[in-house]
Specification:
The chain is mainly β and 591 residues long. It has eight helices and 33 strands. The chain folds into three domains: 181 residues, YmcC-like fold, CATH 2.40.360; 102 residues, Sandwich (Immunoglobulin-like); 260 residues, Rossmann fold.
Length: 591
């Protein structure tokens, strides 16, 4: 007889490292159970975190992908051996083994080495899983009876355990849906919770041809898989999931909600078929969602849905309180275009970025001019190393009080240099580059990002937000470079976690560590700053309450910057690190 194993307190979520996929099952007489499934290349599952497709089978592993930078390697026992999202990788070696057929009361344990961004070289862990019961679970795809599986993992070393607070995870498997339909748990490795959006083959909405020339060839075919027409949703934030195919290739796809365009994908080379998952925000009551697809010859098809957002009538816990309005607001805005040393490439739009952001702060956002310091190539106070340290470490520390809000903005070059201290996991120290910096001596002439931690400690204000339109990859192009002594092959952004450990300190970076922060002539700005300015002006007020909060602004930046950079042939995704209490208001924009 199996006895349920003791699960140590303060365990770390297994779902932070491993991820489960859809699984067919069969029931036998007596105890309900799920037989171990097999998969075929080409199978797809539509979930809130993406549409995953089985690309290939390698030995004992299924290789699923939702995008070029998002992969999951799944064992035949439905445990994940490896997860990759952008430049973050999680792996468990050897992978755990689930005991099939799956039944309530089953459990298992295993040991292995866990690799994740915080521990790239790996750490020894103990794992435990158990099937605890059956629940009625409601997800966008419907309501299902589902097996509840608890999963936990804990480091075997007491020294490592002291660094982790401990987490648990749950995942639900629904026999009727023949897949895992929901997961809950805090994913410290970059993965989030998921739920299933659609189950089984989708019925395509009959395309409505609009403004297409007479032809016997059909227009693009749209399978609008989620949401269902006339659906009633209890959450305002949802997604539109669709598959589009065309004989001539799909050249452009747009999504509108209530007449406002929220997404556009324009393919340089038309694809025969592809899947999209677009996050959208609904208003109270009825909402009209329209997806339009255009093929390479200009034929157009549309598919529409009408869905209703109904606020939950059940008693909800009190909402997270907004941070109290700041008594005073202070800002330092820095933009550097042409550097003193010709070895450092000039930037075309960083000064315009800083000037426009300064204008929107003292205009739309209501910052007082005397509380806002601007340092650019053209200003009386140039952005030298000395002046930058004065602005951040002296001006702000002498001015801002406890109940105040501080905003820091920097547009210019970032740069990596070899870190002889061994503190950085990627072996590279990161710098902001003042106008008078020596590219071959960043140690004495650059502004080290570690200094930001000192700046944070000198500022008394409860809330400090830093926007960085710079990058540190050292790659050619964009707002970064590498000195001749530095070969930046693999850059990570774990240093941002270290800098924002103190409560009320947040850094929003224009791009992931390995990416390039782009400038575009058509915008006259860096891509990140263009949407930052638009967002503070009011377009990031997603709930239309007249206030742009930090959380709304980041959500807006994440969507717009990634879409625009992709359309321009780049790959740029903003990153936010740090924590504030409640919804932090940045600008009042009116209704």
């Amino acid at each position: 007889m199996h006895h349920r194993p003791w699960l140590p307190r303060g365990v770390l979520s297994f779902c932070a490292a491993v991820f489960f996929f859809a699984a067919p099952c069969m029931a036998t007489a007596g105890q309900p159970r799920a037989e171990r499934p097999t998969y075929s290349v080409g199978e797809k599952w539509i979930r809130s975190d993406g549409t995953y497709e089985l690309l290939r089978i390698e030995g004992d592993l299924y290789i699923f992908s939702a995008s070029p930078g998002q992969e999951i390697h799944l064992t035949r026992d439905l445990a994940v051996a490896r997860v990759r999202r952008a430049n973050q990788v999680v792996a468990l070696d050897p992978p755990p083994r689930l005991s099939w057929p799956l039944e309530v009361g089953k459990w298992g344990t295993s040991s292995g080495t866990w690799r994740m961004p915080d521990f790239p070289s790996g750490v020894a862990v103990d794992l435990a899983w158990s099937v605890d019961g059956v629940d009625e679970v409601r997800v966008p795809a419907g309501t299902f009876q589902a097996y509840r599986i608890a999963i936990s993992i804990t480091p075997t070393s007491s020294q490592v355990r002291n660094r982790w607070a401990g987490l648990t995870s749950k995942i639900w498997y629904a026999p009727e849906a023949k897949q895992y339909i929901k997961a809950e748990g805090r994913f410290e490795t970059g993965l989030g919770d998921f739920s299933v959006l659609s189950v089984g083959p989708a019925t395509a909405t009959p395309p409505q041809v609009a403004s297409s020339p007479p032809t016997a060839r059909p227009p693009p075919r749209i399978e609008l898989r989620f949401p269902a027409d006339q659906a009633r949703l209890s959450t305002a934030e949802t997604v539109v999931a669709a598959a589009i195919t065309s004989e001539r290739g799909v050249a452009k796809v747009t999504v509108t909600v209530n007449g406002t365009q929220v997404h556009e994908t324009a393919e340089r080379s038309a694809q025969a078929s592809f899947l999209i998952t677009v996050p959208v925000v609904l208003r109270d009551g009825a909402n009209r969602i329209e997806l339009q697809a255009r093929d390479a010859d200009g034929l157009v098809a549309t598919a529409t849905r009408t869905v209703t957002y109904e606020r939950p009538r059940t008693v909800e816990p009190p909402p997270v309180p907004s941070a109290p309005p700041a008594k005073n607001r202070w800002a330092v805005v820095i933009g550097i275009g042409r550097y003193d040393r010709p070895q450092i490439p000039s930037l075309q739009y960083s000064v315009a970025d800083a000037e426009q952001f300064y204008e929107v702060l003292v205009g739309k956002a209501g910052f007082k001019k005397e509380n806002t310091l601007l340092l650019t190539d053209k200003s009386e106070r140039r952005p030298t190393l000395r002046n930058i340290k004065y602005a951040l470490g002296t001006f702000l520390s002498r001015s801002a009080q406890k109940d105040d809000l501080v905003v820091i903005y920097y547009a210019g070059h970032g740069a990596p240099e070899v870190d002889p201290r061994g503190i950085e996991s990627d072996g590279l120290a990161k710098y902001l580059v003042p106008i008078d910096a020596d590219p071959d001596d960043l140690y004495s002439t650059g502004f080290p990002m570690d200094e930001m931690q000192t700046i944070f400690s000198r500022i008394e204000a409860d809330q400090v937000v830093v926007f960085l339109d710079a990058c540190y990859s050292g790659a050619a192009g964009g707002r970064t470079f590498a000195s001749r002594r530095t070969r930046a092959s693999r850059v990570d952004d774990l240093f941002l976690d270290r800098l924002t450990r103190s409560k009320g300190r947040v850094i929003v970076s224009a791009a992931r560590a390995s990416e390039v922060s782009l400038e575009l002539p058509e915008l006259g700005h860096g891509v990140f700053t263009h949407y930052l300015i638009q967002g503070v002006r009011g377009t990031a007020d997603l709930d239309r309450d007249g206030i742009v909060s930090l959380q709304e602004l980041y959500q807006y930046l994440e969507q717009q910057v990634s879409q625009k950079s992709r359309a321009a042939g780049g790959n740029q995704h903003p990153v936010m690190k740090g924590e504030v209490e409640g919804m932090l208001p940045l600008a009042k924009v009116g209704r």
